[in-house]
C-alpha cells in the first residue's frame, strides 16, 4: 500500500504530452503527472497522488477518508512525536 494524498483536479495542462494536470491539494496548487491513469481525469475529479503522480481516480468520499487518515498521522510542525 502506498501513501496517497488526495487532490482535486482544477484543469488539464496543455503540452507535456497531455500528461499534466493542475491539482488543488489542501489549498495548494500542484502540477501532477496523470500519465499512469487509464483515462485522464476531468476538472472536479479527485485523484490520489504519490510522489507527483496521480495513481488513481477516487470519489469525494474516498478522498475525504484518505485526508482523514493523513490528519490522524499528524502534520510536520505539530510538535515532537511522543
Topology:
Blueprint: E1 5-13, E2 20-25, E3 28-33, E4 46-50, E5 53-58, H1 60-73
Antiparallel strand pairs: 1-2, 1-4, 2-3, 4-5
Describe the protein's architecture and organization:
The chain has 82 residues and is an alpha+beta fold. It has one domain: SH3 type barrels (Roll), CATH 2.30.30. It is 17% helix and 39% strand. It has one helix and five strands, in the order βββββα. It has one helix spanning 60-73; strands at 5-13, 20-25, 28-33, 46-50, 53-58. A five-stranded antiparallel beta sheet has the order 3-2-1-4-5. The two termini are 25 Å apart. The relative contact order is 0.23.
Derived from helix and strand composition plus strand pairing, the structural class reads alpha+beta
CATH architecture: Roll
Helix content: 10-25%
Write the CATH fold name: SH3 type barrels
Q: What's the order of the H and E elements? A: EEEEEH
How many DSSP E strands?
5
Q: Can you list the strand order of the major beta sheet? A: 3-2-1-4-5
CATH class: Mainly Beta
| Rounded average pLDDT | 87
Shape verdict: elongated
Largest sheet: 5 strands, antiparallel
Please tell me how large the radius of gyration is: 13 Å
Quote the distance from N terminus to C terminus.
25 Å
Query: In DSSP terms, counting alpha (H) and pi (I) runs of 4 or more, how many helices?
Result: 1
- Strand content range: 35-45%
Number of domains: 1
Stretches where pLDDT is under 50 for at least 5 consecutive residues are none
Amino acid at each position: 500500500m502506498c501513501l496517497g494524498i488526495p487532490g482535486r483536479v482544477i484543469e488539464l495542462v496543455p503540452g507535456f504530452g497531455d500528461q499534466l494536470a493542475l491539482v488543488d491539494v489542501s489549498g495548494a496548487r500542484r502540477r501532477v503527472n496523470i500519465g499512469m491513469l487509464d483515462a485522464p481525469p476531468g476538472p472536479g475529479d479527485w485523484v490520489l497522488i504519490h510522489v507527483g503522480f496521480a495513481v488513481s481516480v477516487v470519489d469525494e468520499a474516498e478522498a475525504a477518508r484518505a485526508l482523514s487518515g493523513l490528519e490522524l498521522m499528524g502534520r510536520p510542525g505539530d510538535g515532537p512525536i511522543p
